[in-house]
């Protein structure tokens, strides 16, 4: 896998993925940025959320669960001194579907956390990573 990051101006950088997609990262105004894009550490957190959500939805679909929506709300804490690594990350999944079984959703989240999600596994080297979930019935 390859990626490229190019300085645009000020404290803005364009991230380019090997698959041909781009996104803008920028710093906070107090750091010389103009608040035009996500912060790089936010991008890491979003990437982890995307990685684990991808796993959970895929596992549920392969289990023939009738999942219609999946949202993961992420709360994190970072060290107060440099390097300001993540020290705590909590993933709260809100999974919507038809007659979803709690044990199936719990299994999907556990498989993602313990076996499949490279991003959260790496972040778990410095952070305490926890998960919980709620199930909502599709209307």
Describe this structure in words.
- This protein is of the alpha+beta class and 139 residues long.
- The protein has three helices and six strands.
- It has helices spanning 40-62, 102-116, 118-123; strands spanning 3-9, 12-17, 22-26, 66-78, 86-98, 128-137.
- It has a three-stranded antiparallel beta sheet with strand order 1-2-3, with no helix packed on it. Strands 4-5-6 form a three-stranded mixed beta sheet, with helices on one face.
- The longest helix has 23 residues, at 40-62.
- The model has no long low-confidence stretch (mean pLDDT 97).
List keywords for this structure.
139 residues, 3-stranded antiparallel β-sheet, 6 strands, alpha+beta, 3 helices
Summary?
Helices cover 32% and strands 39% of the residues.
Task: Give the number of helices.
Answer: 3
Radius of gyration: 17 Å
- Low-pLDDT runs: none
The biggest beta sheet reads: 3 strands, antiparallel
Write the topology of this structure.
Blueprint: E1 3-9, E2 12-17, E3 22-26, H1 40-62, E4 66-78, E5 86-98, H2 102-116, H3 118-123, E6 128-137
Parallel strand pairs: 5-6
Antiparallel strand pairs: 1-2, 2-3, 4-5
């Amino acid at each position: 896998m390859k990626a490229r990051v190019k300085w645009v101006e000020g404290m803005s950088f364009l991230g380019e993925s090997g698959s041909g997609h781009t996104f803008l990262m920028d710093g906070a105004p107090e750091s010389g940025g103009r608040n035009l894009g996500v912060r790089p550490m936010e991008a890491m957190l979003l990437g982890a959320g995307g990685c684990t959500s991808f796993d959970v939805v895929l596992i549920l679909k392969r289990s023939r669960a009738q999942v219609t929506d999946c949202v993961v709300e992420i709360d994190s804490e970072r060290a107060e001194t440099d390097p300001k690594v993540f020290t705590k990350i909590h993933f709260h999944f809100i999974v919507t579907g038809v007659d979803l079984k709690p044990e199936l959703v719990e299994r999907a989240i556990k498989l993602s956390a313990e076996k499949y999600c490279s991003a959260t596994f790496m972040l778990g080297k410095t952070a305490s990573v926890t998960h919980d979930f709620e199930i909502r019935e599709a209307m």
